[in-house]
Amino acid sequence: MPLVSSKEILEDAYKYRYAIGAFPGHHYEMIRAIISAAEELDTPVIIQTTPDTILYTGIHHLAQMVKTAAENTKIPVSLHLDHGDSFHLVNQCLRAGYSSIMIDGSKLELEDNILLVKKVVEVCHAVDVPVEAELGTIGGAEDNSNVRNREIFLTNPHLAEKFVNRTGIDFFAPAFGTAHGKYKSEPKLDFPLLDDISNRVNIPIVMHGASGISDKDLQKSIQYGISKVNFSTDLKSAFALELRQHLNENPSQENPRKMFITARESVKEIVKAKIKVLQGSKAAV
Ligand code: 13P
Ligand code: ZN
Prior knowledge:
Blueprint: H1 6-16, E1 20-24, H2 28-41, E2 45-49, H3 51-57, H4 59-71, E3 77-84, H5 87-96, E4 100-103, H6 110-126, E5 131-135, H7 157-167, E6 171-174, H8 191-201, E7 205-207, H9 215-223, E8 226-230, H10 233-249, H11 261-279
Parallel strand pairs: 1-2, 1-8, 2-3, 3-4, 4-5, 5-6, 7-8
Helix pairs in contact: 2-4, 2-11, 5-6, 7-8, 10-11
The structure holds 1,3-dihydroxyacetonephosphate (13P) and zinc ion.
Zinc ion is lined by residues 83, 142, 180, 208, 230.
């Protein structure tokens, strides 16, 4: 089917207290692994691309790959801009057919963040595309390791309420203890803060930095309104580990069509395992 908006799938997840996995479409092999995992479990899925991924492949190639994959499957697939860093890129994504947008103004002062997000909401809503935005600092190094590691600054729940009301966003990404990349020590999630934010904003909440979060904490977060869960590092690590191993064990392997098979399979298995955890609470509803 054609790409779907993330709004319906996330609102259903929010209502029935389960979550949708959002996974990185770094390239064709990843996209294929993610879609086949979701197909096997018959669940909707979000493929997301950061500005760096868009730069790597080119927006039209990338969007076309995901659109074609979506058209060839029965499961709903949404194409999302992850950590969008400019109004210009948002417009490029809308023109390329993205069905979900995140604008990340979290480095800006509150009023500047609100102004940017409002502008993005206006253009996206005009074409029925939902918007996610972040307040506070989720921290860590996101996608590109050249980007300096940022510290976590937890989201203030009063400001979260004001931010969501003034911007009109559809999904909210707060900082409540997760961080991007590999955790150096066990992450401590602030569930009372998440609960407070969730009760104030009353829209689906997004967890960033979900690689390395325990299954128990993932499921607990869902009970507080987390409806979209972003994974990247776990998939990248599995892909690299498996590819390295395959090439080491098969030094004569030079076939570009065969060398990624085991790496792709390992990503597919990880995506399936994550989706099962996120759907875990749905079965109990
Ligand atoms: P991880 O790389 O820590 O899983 O974070 C993914 C993410 O938040 C993408 O936006
Ligand atoms: Zn993120």
